[in-house]
Amino acid sequence: MRFPESFLFGSATAAYQVEGAAGADGRGPSIWDTFSHTPGKTWNGDTGDIACDHYHRWESDIDLMAGLGLQAYRFSIAWPRIVPTGRGAVNQAGLDFYSRLVDGMLERGIAPVATLYHWDLPQVLEDEGGWASRGTVAAFADYARIVAEALGDRVAMWGTLNEPWCSAYLGYGQGGHAPGRTEPAAALAAVHHLNLAHGRAVQALRAASDADVSVTLNFHVLRGAGEGSEDAVRRIDALANRAFTGPMLRGAYPADLIADTASVTDWGFVEDGDLRDIRQPLDVLGVNYYSTATVRLWDGTGEMQHADGHKAAGGTAWPGSDSVVEFVEQPGPYTAMGWNIAPEGLTELLVSLKEQFPEQTLMVTENGAAFDDDVSADGKVHDELRVDYLRRHFAAAHAAMEAGVDLRGYFVWSLLDNFEWGYGYAKRFGIVRVDFDTLERLPKDSARWYAELIRTRSLEPALPV
Ligand code: GBH
Hints:
TIM Barrel; binds ligand GBH; three-stranded mixed sheet; alpha/beta; eight-stranded parallel barrel; 39% helix
């Protein structure tokens, strides 16, 4: 199982999850600062104030990446470092940080893949309505222009949004993510404004940079259980997947999505010309994949089973379908997140995307797993479960390529153990361990395994760790 010479092996992080230095050099507050500092919102009250302190340790971190042979690094730019109040004054110190980071990567032969938005909306914009408000769209397009003008000559690939599903539904519907709102209509308005922000940002990026442009979606790979489950699958597919691919890649919202959500909103926030702006040619469609989900029609009796991520009281991650569809517990094995391990779902997803969008180049922009790994007596982290998870998912991606999928690269989530949003520091996704007392980095067996995969470009024979 060899990967072609052009296949890009990378790893990924996100600004709020690794940078720390929340008050440094003019950075403004984001919705995740506010949320994580609100009692009861994150595990143990954890915040990203310090995180991995990557803001100060970036140079040794990219040395570490170079040591592993990473060809690309997917990071995100913190909007509140660049435009601390969301719109208006630009903070040069923020741009300088990413400029140094990008130059450092290029010096080490690592391709910079920069995401503009990985969930850290400037708090000032949330105070004006956040993603439920149309005003945020123009602010985002302006921020995209500023970043493209500053870094557009050196970044290898842009990503506009990371997982707008999470921003919209977890942030404004279910409330488990910042800003923690539980308003189904606001969640759907957020879906549209995120889509429009993506389209306008693509236009701004193209105007100032020749680099490739992508967006990253977290697709739901769905299975149905029981009678009538096709309708449950269709509904969740519409809300989770086609609500984004529809406008972005086909230029329209799916009719069934509009119908299913009619009791929540009339979609009056979609204005003339919006759909034309949202549909922009993309060099790459980024795919984040962790596990599958199984759904069935709810019979309306007893306690409803909720999907993982539906822990907060009130609100819904599935406007219009929350009293119709229930999520079914899936067979293990599971990761430490409780997510089932299903590599075949990745093959299926990539092949299905090729069938739906035959001309669209794909990359896996995130795949990885949290496990309860720890340092052994020999001073190493023997995370064989993560090695096994990654090996099987790389094999699954390879199988999709054999089936004709144009897959250009793969980013392991994550380079470092980091702030896992509502789970704080309780969940470790890194191939490099971070000691959150000393902030020391310790490559796990999975990091050595990955370095070997990158060096040989081959999953066979079994690689040493
Ligand atoms: C990604 O989110 C993030 O981009 C990244 O920042 C994060 O650290 C990483 O993954 C690990 O969590 O079908 O309702 O059960 C992934 C978030 C995980 C959201 C799976 C949807 C299943 C929802 N996704 N989850 S459900």
